[in-house]
Amino acid sequence: SRKTLENAMNSPIGQLVDSVFKIYNAWDIKPTKLKDEILWRLEIALKSKGEGSYHAVSMIMLRFNFMYEQYETWSKNHLVPIYNTDHESCEAAWDSFFYQKYKPSNKVILTLKPFFLDLFEKDLEWLRNEEFKKSLASLSIQFCYWSYPRQSLFTNVEVRKFLRKFDNDMLSHSLWILF
């Protein structure tokens, strides 16, 4: 699939979106000051045609934690719906989500929870990719194991339900992470 972060990083629109964030970091601009300058540009990038849209999604979702923390309302309206498995850019969104530097906040996890659980219910071709399945298993363990006992993000029933959907590779990868 071409809806991956690797492809996005080398695409013109991916580099353009990356530049917006690099300028933000280099100039050390306060998020509130940048709000009027950045969000409309990202909206235009998200509305690109063809592969450009997937690449824009990939590069923006790589910084989803930052976007959600700084621009929660905008993120809920423009970014969160992309994680729905029925959205055409969903594969690009989840692929980039796995590459974020930091674990998402519990607030982000709870916001994305219905879409995350839906990944185990759908039978989409891109969900069968081995690297994607390993990343999904890793994220599942992070969401469940490292959030407990401070705040339980998933019920025992939900955890049991999605663990039953793991194949042997996902189970062995999960055990490798835990030990």
Short synopsis of the structure:
With 179 residues, the chain is an all-alpha fold.
Characterise this structure:
With 179 residues, the protein is mainly α. It is built from 11 helices and no strands. It has helices at 5-9, 12-27, 31-46, 51-61, 64-70, 72-78, 90-97, 106-118, 130-145, 156-163, 168-178. α2 (12-27) runs antiparallel to α3. The protein is globular.
Strand content: under 5%
Radius of gyration over all CA atoms, rounded: 17 Å
List low-pLDDT spans: none
Number of helices, where a helix is a run of at least 4 consecutive DSSP H or I residues: 11
Mean pLDDT: 88
Approximately how much helix is present in the residues? 55-70%
Report the principal-axis shape: globular
Strand and helix order:
HHHHHHHHHHH
Number of strands: 0
Spatial separation of the terminal alpha carbons: 32 Å
Largest sheet: none
Structure class:
mainly alpha
